[in-house]
Design a protein that fits this description.
The protein is α+β, with helices and mostly antiparallel strands. 38% of the residues lie in helices and 10% in strands. Strands 1-2 form a two-stranded parallel sheet. Helix 2 links the parallel strand 1 and strand 2.
Length: 81
């Protein structure tokens, strides 16, 4: 039996509204959002704060997972970002 690999896609939120991001994700066939931001607080765009996305995205039909900031920092160091 051959396993089906899922593609990994990235999206930058910029100044987009949550509705615009959800529409773009749905158009790409995305079912789960994995938040890898180092500081997912949404200081400049509060509608992108982790707490809001944790409730809003599932209500809009998208699963949401936030990775720990320590993991994201480790990946950044490994990739020299």
């Amino acid at each position: 039996m051959q396993s089906r690999r899922q593609p990994i896609r990235t999206i930058g939120h910029g100044n987009r509204s949550t509705a615009e991001i959800v529409a773009a994700l749905r158009a790409a066939g995305v079912e789960t959002v994995i938040d890898v931001r180092r500081y997912p607080k949404g200081r400049r765009q509060p509608h992108h704060a982790m707490g809001r996305l944790m409730t809003e995205l599932p209500a809009l039909g998208l699963a949401y997972e936030a990775l720990s900031t320590s993991w994201a920092v480790g990946v950044g160091r490994q990739l020299r970002l």
